[in-house]
Amino acid sequence: MIMHVDMNAFFASVEQRANPALRGRPIAVTGSAGRTVITTASYEARAFGVKTGMNRYEAKKLCPEIIFVVGDNRKYVDTSIRIIEIIKQYSPMVEVYSIDEAFVDISGTRALFGTPYDMGASIKRGIKEATGLVCSVGVGPNKLIAKLAGEMEKPDGLVVIEESEVESVLKELPVKELWGIGSKLTKHLAEMGVRTCGELAAFPVRELKRRFGIVGEKLSLMGRGIYEGAVVPEGREARAKSVGHSTTLPHDISDLVSIKRYLLKLSEMVGTRSRRHALKGRKVTLTLRYSDFYTFTRQNTLSCHTNDTHIVYKAAQRILSSIQLRSPVRLIGVTLSDMREDETGRAGTGACQMELFGESDRFGALLEAMDSINREYGRFTLTWGSLFMENEASWVIAPSWRPSGVRRY
Predict the structure, then answer these.
(1) Of 189, 187, 186, which is closest to residue 211 (Cα–Cα)?
(2) What is the gyration radius of the CA atoms in the chain, in angstroms?
(3) CATH classification code of 10-73
(4) Would the N or C end of the chain have less CB density within 10 A of its end CB?
(5) Interval 335-346 mean pLDDT
């Protein structure tokens, strides 16, 4: 049996718990930038139609009384880690799927904590007592059904779907309710006459594979409630394939000086995370999203693996200089990929040399000193001159966040 624990309106609930004046009122958590979107809305705001991804103007139009709260990532991370520790008391097999949800394999601990329903109720009580927050819990024979069960009664729900009940639960269920089937896939399936999971289960696999490739076979299994993905606890995850950061800018920019300043900042964030976890990459990807939301990406392959901030930055600069901006830029991203573990444990490029003989070791030592100070006193306490006194952009927790390892930062 697999359990899915999902915190309800997590960011908003944390803010309401921290500030009693916000309780029972419609609030929306946003970034600190002037142009930002809603990351989470309280259930009081959702009742007016306020949703994640809306801008302030849209939310205010739907709910004139809404209160905007600038998000505090440190508060959310600390709360999430406390919740995860509570869940681990019931099973060591915990996969943190995001900052506000986790999968738990309870197959080996049922004898200790009673029925799946009893265990779910106990976890809900433990989280409520420790944090003041409510969650929804779903239990099923695999991750797909557990997540579906968790979505059935929100907020503060607890649903158990036994294996013998899966077929009847899915028969008339719209396919869009299944985890992993989004709006586009729902539309394509509808064009084929498939609208419910029962219809998906009965549809010829050959036709699904012809339309969707290898995904077609997976869709057929999902329609029958079959899902083979196991719970992957901390420490057993696949090695990170990339380390990246992006930011939506406070306002659209087109001057290269400002764009390069953001490139340096993002490159430093990428380099810091890579060095912290002894990883080096060989491919640098630059992402630009223009004012019309057209998104551009291009890669640059280095001669060797590195986690050196300035080598990543120079590669991103080379990509930037090779293109002509089509319009002002609203989002910038830098990613380092083709990763491998760094056996030397030193910052920089390892066997690769920089432009001047001997500079690599000296610069690597500088990076290590900066990392040490910033770990102790906070990000960008010690930074590059061109970033000094720059206003901090709005950094939103990525969906790939994990409580430990390279995905935490």
Answers:
(1) 189
(2) 24
(3) 3.40.1170.60
(4) C
(5) 79
Closest CA to 392 of 207, 231, 262, 253: 262
**DSSP summary character for residue 24:** T
Asked whether 332 and 266 are in contact (CB, 8 A), the reply is yes
| Tens of pLDDT, residues 258-291 | 899 899 889 988 988 888 888 899 999 999 998 8
pLDDT number for residue 351: 47
Paired tokens of 360: 């690599």
Stretch (H or E) spanning 202: helix 197-202
The token pair at 202 is 């009965």
User: Could you give the CA distance from residue 355 to residue 343 in angstroms, rounded to a whole number?
Assistant: 23
User: Please, are residues 170 and 140 in contact by the beta-carbon 8 Å criterion?
Assistant: no
Instruction: Please name every residue paired with 101 in a beta bridge, in sequence order, or none if there are none.
Output: 6, 98
- pLDDT exceeds cutoff 90 at 147: yes
Annotated active-site residue 101? The verdict is yes
Residues 402 and 234: beta-carbon distance below 8 Å: yes
Query: What percent of the chain shows pLDDT beyond 90?
Result: 56
**Residue ranges with strand state E in 321-407:** 329-337, 340-341
CB 312 within 8 A of CB 267: yes
Confidence grade of residue 293 (pLDDT, cut at 50, 70, 90): confident
75 to each of 11, 99, 100, 131, 389, how far by Cα in Å? 9, 11, 13, 12, 25
How many DSSP H helices and E strands does the chain contain? 15, 13
Which listed residue (101, 237, 368, 390) is catalytic? Answer: 101
Q: Which amino acid is at 323?
A: I
What distances in angstroms separate CA 267 from CA 4, 243, 247, 303, 356, one per listed residue? Answer: 35, 10, 12, 18, 21
Map residue 331 onto helix, strand or coil: strand
User: pTM of the entire structure?
Assistant: 0.74
Report the CATH fold assignment for 242-408: Dna Ligase; domain 1 (3.30.1490)
Q: What is the CATH number of domain 166-223?
A: 1.10.150.20
**Cβ-contact 234, 94 below 8 angstroms:** yes
In degrees rounded to 5, what are phi and psi of residue 304? Answer: -155, 170
